[in-house]
Amino acid sequence: MALSADESARLASILEQYSDQIISRWTEIASSSLRGRLTPSELGRQIQELHRALLSAVAANGFELSGEVAVELRAVLDELSRSRARQGFTATETAISVFALKDALLEVIQGSDSEPAALRDYLTFSAVVDQMGLFTFEAYTKAREEVITDQAEQLLELSTPVVKIWDGIVAVPLVGTLDSARAQVVMERLLQTLVDTGSPYAIIDITGVLAVDTQVAQHILKTVVAARLMGADCIISGIGPQIAQTIVSLGIEFGDIVTKSSLADALRHALRLQGIDTARRAARRGA
Amino acid sequence: MDRVPVLKIGDILLVSIQVDMEDQLALQLQDDLAERIVETGCHGVIIDITALDIVDSFVGRTLSSIAAISKVLDADTVVVGMRPAVAITLVELGLSLQGISTALNVERGMELLARSRDEEELLPPDEADDEVTASS
User: Where are the domains of chain B?
Assistant: First the structure.
């Protein structure tokens, strides 16, 4: 919705003439909804910035929120929504900071004159404010979505370390639920580590995996087969009693893949395959 | 036409594939390798596929048959240096390269060959040794 030259000139003059009154009232209403979670000076700065941007936007001819003249106003609104989204304010609290302008304007217009034209003006202005509010809302949602995607990515990065635990032995402690995307990441990273470190043994520890279904088992089996194709052996460890029962009742076949109940057992097994005698064996043999 | 070189190192034939594997090339390699094994009397073959980006089903099958042919000629075959991406693709395709032993790199492949050779030759005395200690 575009404002006519006449309307935007009137809005600009009101904003300019009563600027102090509008800003103070605007800040007052906005701060009441924020319940002191933003410092008054911070909020005041934001409102002043908004006021300045809006004034310069409507001062130009043919104001339209999506148009060329409102570039700065949009940037300010965007910045406001983003910072609010990151600070954890709700969408309503963010939008009210913009909608508060309506109340501030109404008081000024009522105070100035009571002509019927004032009502028309007010309706036009309030439509502009509505648009600004909607824009804020959209920017807020977008910022929140970005936060969520970032976090999902970070989680994916965090949750799949491949550690070298001995010369020629690497381990992957899997934690949480294993979906296709994560299984893919784990698989690629494990295989790459095998190549990089030249390790012929890998231990996949599933102590932290809450549940094993056919799909998860399928992913693990694929990883083991791929590692085998590359010339490395995988040992699966950390299978708890509950998971062992599930695996059997689901009819999942691990075939000739070595499974151990604890990481320690798996490490001992891998060491023995490498020809390194562990203390326990040596002691038994000595006895 | 391109040919894949077959190098003799001690008791081992080393094949390093550096070009894209086409069907004809794979068959040529199979022929060459069979001839060279008989000619040199080597007991081990290492096929290095580090440089291969793609292993399709035909190449996979050829590798399997090379391993089988070598086995008949009393030579063990080890495929080394398969890339993670290639391994993942093969698994997704459901190809498991039956009858092929694999190793991470040429060095490990040579160790593997030496070990399996040792086991074949040293197994009888090793067992006898065990029996002696058990009885004593």
Answer: 6-135
Architecture of domain B6-135: 2-Layer Sandwich (3.30)
Kindly give the pairing relationship between strand A163-166 and strand A169-176. antiparallel
Out of A191, A198, A225, the one facing B84 most closely (by C-beta) is A191
Q: Is B101 within 8 Å of chain A by CB?
A: yes
Nearest-Cα distance to chain A for B85, in Å, is 8
- The distance of A244 to chain B (nearest Cα, Å) reads 25
The model's pTM is 0.62
ipTM: 0.72
Residue A175 forms beta bridges with which residues?
Answer: A208
Closest CA to A188 of B18, B100, B91: B91
Q: Which residues pair with B45 in a beta bridge?
A: B13, B77
Which residue in A187, A183, A207 sits closest to A259, CA to CA? A207
Question: How confident is the model over B50-100, as pLDDT tens digits?
Answer: 988 888 888 888 888 899 999 888 888 999 999 998 898 888 888 878 778
